[in-house]
Amino acid sequence: MANATFYIITPDSPQAKAEGFGEYVLFLAKHFAKQNAKVYLNCHDKAHAEQIAELFWQVDAKEFIAHNLVGEGPKYATNVEIGYQGVRPSWNRQLVINLAENDTTFANKFAEVVDFVPCEEKAKQLARERYKIYRQAGYQLQTIEIAHS
C-alpha cells in the first residue's frame, strides 16, 4: 500500500526558516538514500531545483550525498534526483519529497510521498488539498510534527 507522510512545520521550529528547512530536506534525503531508496525531490521550478542541488554541495565532504538534476548525471541517475513541474524522473523512483507549494500530487506515481504542512496559511491550505487527494487515492496517511531541535 502506498504511504504519504506530512511533516507539520510549526512557527517556532527551526524548519520554519528557509535555512532550517533546507537542512531538514538534506537530512531526509540522506536518511532515505542510506536505506537505498530512489528519492525524487520535486521543486517549484528549475531555479528552485538548482538552489536545492546547491545545498547538497554545501555539506561537509563526509556528509556528501550523490545527487543530480533531472537530465544530468549518470544514465541511471543517482539515489537522489532533483526535478520540478514538467520534468520526469530519469527512472523508477519509490519516494518523492515534495518541496513545491502548488497543488501537485503524486497519487499513483510513487509508493512513498513525503510532503510538508508549512506555517503560511495559503500553503497550509494547498497541503490540505493534497492530503485529501492522497486519501481518495487510497494512500495510508500519517502526520508528524517536526520536533523543536
UniProtKB/TrEMBL annotation:
| Protein name according to UniProt | DNA polymerase III chi subunit
> InterPro entries from the xrefs?
DNA_pol3_chi, PolIII_chi_sf
Q: What are the EC numbers?
A: 2.7.7.7
Q: Which GO terms describe its molecular function?
A: DNA binding; DNA-directed DNA polymerase activity
Instruction: Recite the UniProt keywords alphabetically.
Output: Nucleotidyltransferase, Transferase
Superkingdom of the source?
Bacteria
Q: Name one GO biological process term.
A: DNA replication
Q: Which residues form the signal peptide?
A: none
Q: Which organism is it from?
A: Vibrio orientalis CIP 102891 = ATCC 33934
Q: What class of enzyme is it?
A: transferase
